[in-house]
C-alpha cells in the first residue's frame, strides 16, 4: 500500500461555518474555546454576564480572524431560565441553527462542609452549574435533533467523579452534570447528535478567585509549586472532540495536570514536574 504525501492519514471534521454557542465565554475556558472555534472558522454565539468583556473578545477575534462571521454576543446570566428558553427564537438567522453547544458556565462558592453550607451559595451553584446547563440543552437540542446534526459538549469536573471535603455542593452539581450528560447520550443514541463530557482537574483560571470570594492570595496557594492546566488546554480538548469524524463520539475525557493524580492528590514539585535534577 502506497501513501500519498498530499493525503492525510486521518481526516478530521471541518467545522468552519458551523454555529458554536459557548456559555461563560467572557473569561477562562469559555474565552479560550471562543479563540479555538474562531481559528477553525466557526460562527460564534458568545454567552456571558459581562457585556464589555464579550464586546472586547468579539472585537479581538474579528481582528485576529477577519474572515470569520462577526461573533454574536448575548449578555445573559445562565440562572435566568426564561431568558434561555427565549434565546433560540431571538438569535438572528445566521446564528440560529446551533450545531455545537458548549455548556461551560459554572462556579464554586466557598469550601464549607456539608453541615455549614450557606443556602444562598447552594442555590447559586445549583442554578448555574445544573439548571442553566439543562435549560440550554432543552433550548437547543430539539433543533439539532430536527436537523439531524449537532454536538453537545458539557464541561464537567474531576469533582463530578470523586467527592472531597469542602466541596459537598460543588461536587454534587458536577456529579449531576456527569449523570445528565450520560443520560443525554442514552436519549440521543439513535440520532447523529454526539454528546461529550470533559472533566478537567486543576485549571488555573479565575475559578479559585471566585471560590474564595476574590481573595487572590488564597487562590494563588491552590496552584503553588505545581504546574496546573490552563484554559487553552481544556479548549484544545473541546476542539479535539468537536473535530472528530461524525461517526466518532468522544464520550468522556478526564484531564489532569501531570502532577495531579486525583481531585485532592497533587505533588507540589514545581516546574520540573518532578524530573530528577541534572546538576
UniProtKB/TrEMBL annotation:
* PROSITE patterns reported for this sequence: ADH_SHORT
**GO molecular function annotations of the record:** oxidoreductase activity, acting on the CH-OH group of donors, NAD or NADP as acceptor
Give one Pfam family, short name only: adh_short
Q: What keywords are assigned to this protein?
A: Oxidoreductase
Lineage, top-rank taxon, reads Eukaryota
| Family per record | Belongs to the short-chain dehydrogenases/reductases (SDR) family.
Q: Which PANTHER family match?
A: ALCOHOL DEHYDROGENASE
Name used for this protein in its record: Short-chain dehydrogenase reductase sdr
- What organism is the protein native to? Chrysochromulina tobinii
